[in-house]
Amino acid sequence: MAGLQHPFQCLRYVNRQSAGQSDILIATAGRDLYSYDASSGQRLDVWPQPVDANAEDKSSDAAPASESQAPPEKRRKLSSTSEEQKDAKSESKPKDSNKEASNSWTNIPLVTVAHGKYVVIMTSEDKCVRVLSLDNEGKLQQLSARTMPKKLSALTLTPDENNILTGDKFGDVYTFQLIPSGEYVKVQAPAKSYEPSATNLTVHTKRNLESLEQQMRQAALSKTNQAERVVLNFEHQLIIGHVSLLTELISVTRPADNTAGKRNYILTADRDEHIRVSRGVPQAHVIEQFCFGHTSFVSSLCVPSFEPKVLISGGGDNYLLVWDWLENQILQKVQLPGSEGETTVRGIWDVSLAPTADNAEPVKAIFVALEGSSQLLCYTLESDNTITHHHTLQLSGNVLELVGIDSRGSILVAVDTLRQSDSTSAWKSSSQPPLESFRLSSGKWIPADDSMVIKINSEGTSSLPTAIEQKEQKELNDSMYNLGNLRKRGDYDE
Amino acid sequence: MATQKIPAKRMKREEYRRNVQAQQESTDAVIKMPQKKFFRQRAHANPFSDHRLEYPLSPAHMDWSSHYPAFVDPDTSKTNLSGGRKLTKEVEVVDIGCGFGGLMVGLAPVLPDTLMVGMEIRTSVLEYLSSRIHALRSQQQRLKNKAANPSSTEPQDASTQPEGTESTAPAPSNDDEIGTEKIFPGNFENITAIRSNTMKFLPNFFGHHQLSKIFICFPDPHFKARKHKARIVSESLNSEYAYVLRPGGLLYTITDVEEYHHWVLRHFLHGEQPEGAAPAPSSKDLFERVSEEELALDPCVRVMKYETEESKKVTRNKGNKYVAVFRRKADPEWPA
Asked: Mean of the pLDDT values across residues B11-33?
């Protein structure tokens, strides 16, 4: 495996056994989305298709790599092309859309899977939410592409998996249908000529009056010249807003208990230390609670599937908080390694494994990774809803992503293939395998010999060009390790 | 600019403010009303920037004891999560963007038993209001003492000042010193001012359903469409106001900008729907408009319309005032 390869950024395990099909592993690396057969590790599809149609999996280093050499086309504003793109999509011409879609992003930081047959991704630079179908053979085909007004920091689904929920850098949470139904007819506001909202009754100073006069003149001149910006050109609803950068968004269902029926909630976190508990759609405008306890930004929220009353949160503080989140009650403060102001939580994952021959008890594991750290902290959730640290796993590179595979009783960990262990900037000279696998053996997580992982690693991901400039390196580093930017600096303006 | 010599105006301003500070710290001096001209500040602040803000970790950590010394619970064992003394009652009225504090000062005697706080993001303006409240309280105290012992001079000032020169407030020389000769109920002990960015940190100060009234008076209109996202009224912020406001509580708005008034109405009330269609669920479900008849009986509306600093300015300039008050409805039932 010569040269450097992109690490896996997102992993999702798609359990399809109930539907009588084999499980699929979905992964993103660089600008590509992969699907693998979860039992053999056989690569089933890559999206977008490499430009060279003959390119087999093995020769993957040629095609996508050359593409990624070109600087990404960064589109800040919604251009008319995105509209055209959308129109093209709705006519469902998958081949065209695949071609069109190429070359406008460098990574896919957000992925989720709906109903086991739709993959929802956000491609980063073009801020596009794309829904792809995942067929029985694991083939990926784009169904729709919807451009958001701001880059997303979180992407999830409503509990029924029929609607997408997005959280963006501007603090807004939108919801829209997974599969757009029918044509979206934008309610056209009657064309109204521009009129300054200030009048000589509300502004008085000489300067303000002058500028008001100017505005009036301008308004008279450009009666028709009002180019309306195309924002969110599809049916959507703005349901929650923070005046802050939204960092995380999760959707939680609390099962019925003796006080209330089954209830849905949306938990949102922001850069200003807040965790907000809102009701689920359609009542997301009702805020039920705030969870106060962090003194730095919050970047990770985890409500374990096996204990929906509990929330584990982390971010820029060197501790985790374990909550009874509906009551704003801190159950436990868990110290993390590292000093205040340096430790950043990259991810918190819950993994539940059914009892196996090795482990009589069902496993309720919580894993925590710190930003730019090659260690994986392993905890278990106890019956009193606190977590206990068991041990720490050392990996071959920085931990980027984790997914539990209940059917095999194991976890898959994506490690950084580009940067040296415990560094977010110093590069390796050659890549290591992007995936590691562990299984639980008498209470300890030990490396597992998994033929699937060996197969995936042997094929690797798309390669980077052999000569890569410092500037591009930095861009790649910044897109992979961006949580540090959330920290508040000391230099404020008054 | 910092290396240049300090302009004379700023020198004067800084000297004045130091004196005000010194006056407040000494116990025996008679506290004069601060003068607004030394505290002017640009009328806009960026609500999206971090600023150097102090805010409590949570409402349970907020130490109000220094703000309302007259309402501190005598039981010293009662403390909040940050160790401060508790109050005998909760704060329940907030003026968002209180500016120079005309509303707070006007409302203090109207609701003498209600704790009220003005929140303002601009430091100088806040400093003025804090000095003003401090001065008002001490003046009330002196007037009260005088009323209690009409024959003797004030016990505190007797040694230093003969009565009638300094202590009976000097002839009012400007707007700020007028109208405080009389003893007011509550002695202004029930109002205070805090620097905050409520768009970000309102829930850090107030718990679920804690407030009975929120005032939004003459908010920054942010005329440009590009700046509308910085407006203090929006559907998502209204959700937060609903969180801190108790059902039945009132949210008062007043503006002199007609377009902003329509903006307010549009963001608190459902517009006309095409026939048969139910309005999309939103924070508008949580508010209803209060009728004109009811407002005519509400003394708070009068204070808001005529006693805030900005409303006086609008009156002087013969501008219009648009009032809209909304009542917090109960939360909807959970969907079955």
From this structure: 73
| Residue-level pLDDT at B4 | 62
More confident residue, A488 or A308: A308
* Cβ separation B52–A292 shorter than 8 A: no
> What is the total count of domains within chain A?
1
Name residues 259-278 of chain B within 8 A of A (Cβ): 259-260
Chain B residues with CB under 8 Å of A316 CB are none
pLDDT greater than 60 at residue B251: yes
Determine which one of B63, B73, B95, B220 is catalytic. B220
The percent of residues above 70 in pLDDT, for chain A, comes to 82
- CA distance, residue B321 to nearest chain A CA (Å): 10
A interface with B, Cβ–Cβ < 8 A, is 170-172, 196-199, 201-202, 204, 237-238, 240-244, 260-261, 263, 272, 274, 278-279, 282-283, 285-287, 289-290, 292-293, 295, 328, 488-489, 492-494
Tell me, what's the pLDDT at A132?
A: 95
Q: Considering only the top CATH level, what class is B76-148+177-271+281-335?
A: alpha beta
**Does the residue A58 lie in any domain?**
no
pLDDT tens digits, A147-182: 999 999 999 999 999 999 999 999 999 999 999 876
- Is A62 domain-assigned? no
| B319 vs A: CB within 8 A | yes
pLDDT in tens, A119-157: 999 998 889 999 999 998 899 999 999 999 999 999 999
The range of the structural domain enclosing residue A168 comes to 10-48+105-181+232-486
pLDDT in the model for residue B174:
41
Q: What is the pLDDT of residues B70-118, one digit of tens each?
A: 999 998 888 888 888 999 999 999 999 998 999 999 999 999 999 999 9
B282 touches A at CB < 8 Å:
yes
Tell me if A80 is assigned to some domain.
no
pLDDT for the residue numbered A67 = 42
In a domain, A221, yes or no: no
Q: Name the CA dihedral angle for B299, B301, B307, B311, rounded to a multiple of 10 degrees.
A: -170
Higher pLDDT, B169 or A330: A330
Q: Which residues of B touch A290 (CB under 8 A)?
A: 58, 203
Question: pLDDT at position A49, please?
Answer: 82
User: Is B281 in contact with A283 (Cβ distance < 8 A)?
Assistant: yes
From A173's Cα to the closest Cα of chain B, the distance in A is 10
Domain boundaries, chain B: 76-148+177-271+281-335
Active site residue B75: no
